[in-house]
Amino acid sequence: MPRTPRILIVGGGIGGLAAALALERVGAEVIVCEQSPKLSEIGAGIGLAPNAVKALRALGLEGKINAIAYASAYAVIRSWRDGREISRAYQGDYGEKFGAPSVTAHRADLLGVLAGALARSDVRLGLRCTSVETSERGAAAHFADGSEIEADIVVGADGIHSKVRESLFGADAPRFTGCICWRGMAPADAVPRDINTDDVTLWMGPHGHVVHYRVRRGELVNIVAHVDSDAWTEESWTRECNVDEVITTYARWNPALTRVFPASERWYKWALYDRDPPERWSKGRATLLGDSAHAMLPYLGQGAAMAIEDGCVLAGLLARGGDDLGDVLGAYERLRQPRVREAVLGSRARARDNHLTSRFARLKRDLRYAWRKRFGGDQTVFQAGRLYDYDAGRELA
User: What is d(CA 27, CA 1) in angstroms, rounded to the nearest whole number?
Assistant: First the structure.
């Protein structure tokens, strides 16, 4: 890096803070602007696949992540009605296969680790970005309080409704997927003891699926239930609802699942959205990362992983790039596009596979799992080994 660039990151979530930490490590001057009055995350779980853990390792955080996460030995898929095991994937050897384990964590814990690792970044809270202007020489972000911050590069890490994205490419709407979700978080000791919560468990049925796994060193069980419906389109992750909604929706599902629901004292619901894979996400001296650029469904557990990878790759390219920062952003976009496209479209395909309505289609799907188990092939639960192989840390090194 020929000189120290000044980088402004709009958004202080997981992707924004990971990018800030990566940029710190290559010597950039970093400003992070977050619209909330404090750095916070919703009370939900997050999966960190091996590629995410490798990116966090490159940021010097693997030990701290292991201290707040939970590693399940197995990921299991079960049938919605009779509870039979459709697939069981051993995750205990992911370190050997992919170079890092697969773990699950509380989103707030992960954000705390990222925030605590920042050493030099200037984090400014309570600043809501309203627009961004960019040129060949720099960029500037404008905020609701009338202030303005200039930088060599502005990075939009402000989520699926990104103001940075809107400024660069015009207003558009994310795609409603026709799916609504509920989430709960239960103390592990509140779940009936005869129900196994040690494994990451996915229950697949017609028009829906439910996943539960442990977080926070195994102390809590994160529960997320998905169903095909257009009865609710609000996107907020903080809209509380009654557990009776969840119990009624899944009343015909196996009791080893439905008896988990009351263990969570609070439930929240939201509608699920994503975007088509973008053709561009950089313009002039501004670019995007994470959900701002490539919001995806959660069914491959890659949303946060791709955002963290984005930050590592961007920082690595800046460290090795020349004086033309616009060329660096173009290279960043070209390098990331094929990979995030695979994750976005793969997540959509996974959604269809999870919610098959035809008994014959479900039988064919289940036989595919059995065939792979017996005769080889990708043994990861989501057939995502290609994604897990990648190591963004090499770009940062």
Answer: 8
Mean pLDDT, residues 82-105: 95
Beta-carbon count within 10 A of 174 CB: 15
- State the Cα–Cα distance between residues 104 and 200, nearest whole angstrom: 9
SS3 for the chain is CCCCCEEEEECCCHHHHHHHHHHHHCCCEEEEEECCCCCCCCCCEEEECHHHHHHHHHCCCHHHHHHHCECCCEEEEEECCCCCEEEEEECCCHHHHHCCCCEEEEHHHHHHHHHHHCCCCEEEECCCEEEEEECCCCEEEEECCCCEEEECEEEECCCCCCHHHHHHHCCCCCEEEEEEEEEEEEEHHHCCCCCCCCCEEEEEECCEEEEEEEEHHHCEEEEEEEEECCCCCCCCCCEEECHHHHHHHCCCCCHHHHCCHHHCCCEEEEEEEECCCCCCCEECCEEECCHHHHCCCHHHCCHHHHHHHHHHHHHHHHHHCCCCHHHHHHHHHHHHHHHHHHHHHHHHHHHHHHCCCCHHHHHHHHHHHHHHHHHCCCCCCCCCHHHHHCCCHHHHC
What are the structural domains, with CATH classification, of the chain?
A: 6-173+275-396 (3.50.50.60)
Q: Which residues contact 79 (CB under 8 A, 6 or more apart)?
A: 86, 203, 204, 205, 254, 366
In this predicted structure, the answer to whether residue 321 has a pLDDT above a threshold of 60 is: yes
Q: What is the mean pLDDT of residues 162-173?
A: 92
* 213 is a catalytic site residue: yes
Lowest-confidence segment of 127-136, 188-197, 229-238, 275-284 by average pLDDT: 229-238
Quick one: pLDDT at residue 316? Answer: 96
Measured CA to CA, the distance from residue 81 to residue 65 in angstroms comes to 36
Mean pLDDT of the chain: 93
Q: What pLDDT score was predicted for residue 335? A: 95
The residue annotated as part of the active site, out of 70, 74, 94, 213, is 213
Dihedral over Cα of 14, 278, 51, 271: its sign: positive
**Taking a C-beta distance cutoff of 8 angstroms, is the pair 163, 131 a contact?**
yes
CA distance 167 to 132: 6
- The pTM score is 0.95
